[in-house]
Amino acid sequence: MSHTEPTSITCLSVHRNTYSIDYQLPTIQPIPNGLIPIGQKYGLSSLDAAKINRLYNCMSCGGTLTVPGGNFSSPGYTEHEPYPPFSDCTWTMIALVGYKVRLNVLDVSVEYSSSCQYDSIEIRDGMVPTAQQLVKKCGTGDIPTVTSSQNSLLRFYSDSSDESTGFLAKYSFVPAA
Question: Which intervals hold domain Peptidase M12A (predicted)?
Fold first, then answer.
C-alpha cells in the first residue's frame, strides 16, 4: 500500500496521516495502550484494519467470497437485531473458471418503497457495481434462486431510518455446463 492510498476501515476511511497534527505522524494510535505499534511503513495492513474494527466496535460487512459455498447475512441478522442505518455492504462471489454462482437470498425484511430507493438488496452478474442487475429487492419475502455467470455481486444498502432484520444469503458454485 502506498502512503497515498486510503485505508479501508469500516468506521474510518482516511489516508495514513489525514488527521495527524504532524504529517509524519500516523492518524490512528491504538487504545488503551498507545505504545503498541500498528501499521506498516506506508499504511495499515488488512490485519491492522481488522484489529481497529474490533477495537472501535466498527460494523463489518461485505467481502470477497472464493470458497465453493457458504452463507452470509446483513449486519445484525444473526443476532436477531435490526441492521444499522447507513449500511452499505458489498459481497463479491468469485467462482473458478467453468463454474457459475447460484445464490439464494432468504428471510428478506428491509424497508419497502415502490422503487426500493431507501433500503435494498441488489444482485449483479459480475464483480462490479455497474454489471448487469439481475435483481433489486426491498420489502419482505425470499428472492427466487439466481444463477449468474462466473462472478456475482450482492449489495445491501440502508438509509437513515426504518431498519429491519435484513436477510440471509446462501451461495454455491455450480458447474457452468
Answer: 1-62
